[in-house]
Amino acid sequence: MKKRDKKFEKLKSILKKMGHVVVAYSGGVDSTFLLRVAHDVLKEKAFGVLAVSPSYPSREYAKAIEIAETIGVKIEVIQTKEIDDVRFKNNPENRCYFCKSELFEKIAEIAGTDKYKNMVDGSNFSDRNDHRPGMQALKEKKVRSPLMEAELTKNEIRELSKQLGLPTWDKDELACLSSRFPYGETIDQKKLRMVDQVENFLSDLGFRNIRARHSRYTVKIEVEPAQIHKFFDDKLRDKTVKVIKEIGYTYVTIDLEGYRRGSMNEVITGKKK
Q: Residues 35-81: pLDDT tens digits?
């Protein structure tokens, strides 16, 4: 048996011992895989919660609902209001802590019924070295991360997702829209809507792994590195600039390194080094 498959069996064993779980579900690679496996192992004793807020990419909602229906697992859609928390809006380096606290306070209200007493999230083994202040909130709220406990990496989760026939196996990296803002710049619904509109526009053009990094009057676009050359086409570039300026930005720039995970954290990791 491959090492990856041993980890997969360990994951199923962890979930079986838990008995009942509420999965924090976003429709991304990790939480979809976890929800599917939890449903396979626990059947009706597994349940998903999809949290929607101005920070959640609007283009993901319908996809997340459809995938859950395909799996055959019950989910509940809730509204979170982290944007109303001034500590979140001020966007400090531990912003994610306040977001995760809000999320799992809401999920705890559901888990508190005793029927679904264990809260779990999709953090995986590849996340352990990233800047993730939200992990503190998970500890405080007693949220477990079965994928991390099983030591499953992102690549292994993609491989297993493909094996299970999940459409998310090659899905772009998913992160909340609040991650598009440099630490210290305040976040509000108008700015989140601007970022969302830019990313939806680029997605409709066929770009992948899109990030619209917001900085006051400027948006810096990250896309899959292999797709950057598309912006050298005059017609596409002119169209992109026109639409994005109509959305509300004064300056439109392209990051020539392309998409890379956690690029907004480079200022932090640089400090730590």
A: 999 999 999 999 999 999 999 999 999 999 999 999 999 999 999 99
CATH superfamily ID and name for 3-170: HUPs (3.40.50.620)
What single-letter DSSP state applies at residue 173? P
Whether this model's pTM surpasses 0.85: yes
Tokens of 5: 């498959």
Dihedral-angle region of residue 237 (phi above 0 means left; psi in -120 to 50 means alpha; beta otherwise): alpha
Nearest to 146, CA basis, from 1, 5, 2, 18: 18
Report long-range pairs for 194-199 (Cβ below 8 Å, ≥24 apart): 194/219, 194/247, 194/248, 194/249, 195/219, 196/57, 196/58, 196/59, 197/247, 198/244, 198/247, 198/249, 199/57, 199/59
Q: Which residue bears the tokens 């690679």?
A: 29
| Rounded Cα distance, 10 and 128, in Å | 19
200 vs 203: CA distance, rounded Å: 5
- Give the C-alpha separation, 56 to 49, whole Å: 14
Q: Angle, to 10 degrees, between the axis of helix 154-163 and the axis of helix 3-18?
A: 80
